[in-house]
Amino acid sequence: MYRNPQGSIEKTAVTVERLAWGGKGVARAADGRLILLSAPLALFPGEVVEAEIRWKPRHGEGDVRAWITPDARREPASCPVARACGGCDLWEAGPHAPALKKAMVTDLLARSLPGAPAWTWLEAPASALRHRIQVHWTGRDLGFHRRGTNALVAVTGCPAAAPVLSAALPRLQEALEAKVLPSRPQRWELATGTPAGEVFAQDEQGRAWSLEPDGWHPTTAGVEHRLGSARLGHRPGGFFQVSPAWAWEAFGRILAGWDLPPGTLYDLYGGVGFFSALLSGSVQRTVLVEADAPAVAWARRNLEGLDAECVAADAAEWLPEGLGLPGDLILLDPPRAGLAPELCERLQEAGAEDLVLVGCDGAAFCRDVKRLEPAWRLEALAVADLFPNTVHVECVAWLRKAPEA
């Protein structure tokens, strides 16, 4: 049977068999070779699409250019730049987007953690809009990066963002055009608190402005979130949950459903104290470790009145041998790249017998669960859709010390 030579490009019609992690569509060539498809909009299994395929030694990688036989469930996107903007992945899936995302997660876990216990899926509510967005200013246009490039898609609003952020985009562009704000080309972050209200803008130099009725004013105030009985603040531009109220609810439901110990919480990669505050009513004391010193300063404010120690240090470097005692809990919420191998090795000898691992990249998360073996056994697993209309999820695992042989 004829095979396309490596490096060749072919435009052909293929059928999407299933969805893989990262939103990839899986198809096959006539000779059985695997094809991984990327698309600017949601893909449904069973759809026939026209794709431009680049052939590798053993498989093909394709970009969907058109839908030949679209699924009947497709709906028009409510975003006018859905096909071009790189911010969202699942436009045109409508109410079926959560089911498509769950199918991607199912594929990942079945392949990466085949022995995992039955897992819980938390679907995002319609209210889970983004309270942080990053936009780019070229000196003339304001918008998001075009999918797969650094070219700009100009926007005047964003249906995935909280309405106050969407409404602030024209106000930001007006101030940039008038040179009221620094007008050199750069990235800007817009953020609002919880509930959504005051809007902050931060430039790449870390300078912040708040939006008032008469325009933008320099500010040193923090972004504030009222989540349950907690009051959490952070600097504009500082890391925080994208949909804070939904994240608080989702993580709260997950962790409350597990029989976690009540001793000392070691909150590693703790940021400004989100998980320390969330678990404050169920643990005796907290040790929070975070490399970003400004975030640690905010954590001390956020956890004031609690028995909490906040340490400015890299978690992998800080982690001592034999961390904790039976009855303590280690919680790790690392960056997208996941845990360092040496940290996983030191955790093999931890004194604590319970560990919660949080991961925003499913592939790295599964890798880290396996790296924590053989000392740690996967007890429970949950996946929450904290990033609606994208292919991203938050994975959470409860691991317990495995019995010694």
UniProtKB/TrEMBL annotation:
Active site: C360
All copies of domain TRAM, residue ranges: 3-66
Coiled-coil residue spans: none
GO function term, MF aspect, one: rRNA (uridine-C5-)-methyltransferase activity
Residues holding S-adenosyl-L-methionine: Q241, Y269, E290, D333
Pfam families (UniProt xref): tRNA_U5-meth_tr (PF05958)
GO biological processes: rRNA base methylation
Keywords: Methyltransferase, S-adenosyl-L-methionine, Transferase
Transmembrane regions: none
The keyword S-adenosyl-L-methionine belongs to this UniProt entry's keyword annotation: yes
InterPro entries: NA-bd_OB-fold (IPR012340), SAM-dependent_MTases_sf (IPR029063), TRAM_dom (IPR002792), U5_MeTrfase_fam (IPR010280)
Family statement drawn from the similarity comment of this UniProt entry: Belongs to the class I-like SAM-binding methyltransferase superfamily. RNA M5U methyltransferase family.
Protein name from the UniProt record: TRAM domain-containing protein
UniProt organism field: Mesoterricola sediminis
Lineage: Bacteria, Pseudomonadati, Acidobacteriota, Holophagae, Holophagales
